[in-house]
Hints:
Blueprint: E1 5-7, E2 10-12, E3 18-23, E4 33-39, E5 46-51, E6 57-60, E7 68-73, E8 78-83, E9 92-99, E10 112-113, E11 117-121
Amino acid sequence: QLQLVESGGGLVQPGGSLRLSCTTSRFTLNYNNIAWFRQAPGKEREGLACIRANGVITTYADAVKGRFTISRDNAENTVYLQMNSLKPEDTGVYYCAARQRYCSIIPTEMGYWGQGTQVTVSS
């Protein structure tokens, strides 16, 4: 079972930046397409971005285009989400998820999930 672990969340002021990491200790991520999601209190889980196993980025949600960047370092077995120009509405729990067949930012299509990391954007 692929167990994903997110890190890098925290409290940041509006306009600030954070970089989230997604990795796994037991298996390689290199053959998986990885996506980032977030869930704000009282809202549904929202897909943000997906990167293929070969590093090709397939999609960004409109809400984060131009501000967030997904990348991966297969040598480090890690996928990143660089978040710039953060806004209070970016607050939520951020999750990474994996699937093998194709890239997706639809939560029900993902096979494996991490436990999430909290991001709070507030002054």
